[in-house]
Amino acid sequence: MGLGGGSYCSRMIFNSPDASWGSCKAGNCKSCAVKVLSGEPDHRDSALSTLEREEQRLMCPCVSRATGDHLVLDI
Questions:
Q1: Tens-digit pLDDT profile for residues 4-56
Q2: CB contact set of 16 (below 8 Å; sequence gap of 6+)
Q3: What residues pair up with 34 in beta bridges, in sequence order?
Q4: In Å, how far from its chain's centre is CA 19?
Q5: How far apart are CA 68 and CA 62, in angstroms?
Q6: Beta partners for residue 35, in sequence order
Q7: How many CB atoms lie within 10 A of CB 47?
Q8: Residues paired with 59 in a beta bridge
Q9: Domain segments of the chain: what residues?
Q10: What is the pLDDT of residue 17?
Q11: I want to staple 30 with a disulfide (CB 3.0 to 4.6 A). Which of 4, 24, 43, 47 is the partner?
Q12: Which CATH number describes the domain made up of 8-74?
């Protein structure tokens, strides 16, 4: 799905406005955190701990992006 520069979270909220996660939409609350299955995230949030960032197992898609060509999330 091409997002045209928008975040994954904003696209998902647009397609599913009743979603209860991602309430802050600024990377501060961790309510949208999802499991990373493949690829490497570019963490732009302030919610994940240093350890969570280093482990590369979670990502806050409201503000974070992929660092490479692909990123597979458990959504």
A1: 555 666 666 666 655 555 567 788 888 889 999 999 999 999 999 999 999 99
A2: none
A3: 59
A4: 14
A5: 18
A6: 58, 74
A7: 19
A8: 34
A9: 8-74
A10: 56
A11: 47
A12: 3.10.20.30
